[in-house]
Amino acid sequence: MRDFFKNPARTAYQLSPNGEYYAFLAPYQKRMNIFVQARSGGEPVRITGETARDIAGYWWKGNDRILFMRDKNGDENFHLFAVSRDGKTQTDLTPFDSTTVQVVDGLIDNDNEILIATNQRDHEVFDVYHLDLTTNKLNMIAQNPGNISGWITDHDGKLRAATTTDGVNTSLLYRDNESEPFRKILTTDFKQSLSPLFFTFDNKDLYASSNIGRDKDAIVTIDPNTGKELSMVYQNPDVDVDALHYSHKRHVLTFASYETDKPHNYYLDPQTEALHKKLEAKLPGYEVVITSMDRNEDLFIVRNYNDRSVGNVYLYDLKRK
Fold it and tell me: What mean pLDDT, rounded, does the chain reach?
């Protein structure tokens, strides 16, 4: 039992946007904390010192700051913290009692801003706030009327869509811009589902996972003004399609994923397919997944695993092969 529940020695590797550093979680006094190491070498530096609770999740926000989430004594009221890359400065960005935080949009191209949702106004619902990381000031940009369960931004970080639920029926809400009110576009019941994923790269339509008119989830594009299906991206005849991925740098769809005997990818981009095939050839006999990359998409954290091995973690340099 001790071995089964033991923390991993190192896990959750992530590259900084410029690729010069990588971070990972590792135990410190039996709790998972964040360490940072330069890609050029040297010893890793522990930048957090949590001893009561594990860090629940973290990510780079620029090259000099990491954001992470942690609750207090298991109360599941997760706060958002910022810590400098050297660990010398740490700030609780949501220091509110009986409040938890969700990330709405990490605003990957903006190192100093993020969109979050908190229930500080009303513990039963989450409103959306703009958080300025240079001043740590919160500004509400959308108040939850009480039934919104999810928020969706476009590629410019504008709050353009939302979903509501009453426990049985789910509705899609949409607006053309942030100055307009949301309007209901369509409603599905427990027999049908339509889950918006993200906007098309021109911010006009939505990619979604939908089983409307079929018995399995497929990836489609829909018109957010009407909810009508516009085109099929990918469907599998045997199983639901799990997810759709894209390149943030190149603004192209890369692959859809699904699972039959094991996880599979349906590639939508030759460049991504070539990269994955090259990695699979270097690591035969394993499932191979990319878990992190730099902003230029030249450096990748790669994990391999199979049903008999937890595998290893690698750094892959695309330019140097």
Answer: 96
CB 31, CB 53: distance < 8 Å: yes
> Which of 79, 104, 101 is closest to 91 using CA atoms?
79
Residue 267 confidence (pLDDT): 98
Per-residue model confidence (pLDDT) at position 73: 87
From residue 239, alpha-carbon distances to 196, 242, 263 in Å are: 19, 9, 11
This prediction has a pTM of 0.93
DSSP conformation class of 4:
H
Among left, alpha and beta (phi > 0; psi -120 to 50; other), residue 76 is: left
pLDDT band at 4 (very low <50, low <70, confident <90, very high): confident
Under the banding of pLDDT at 50, 70 and 90, the label for residue 206 is: very high
Tens-place pLDDT, residues 117-141: 999 999 999 999 999 999 999 999 9
β-strand 229-234 against 218-222: which pairing, if any? antiparallel
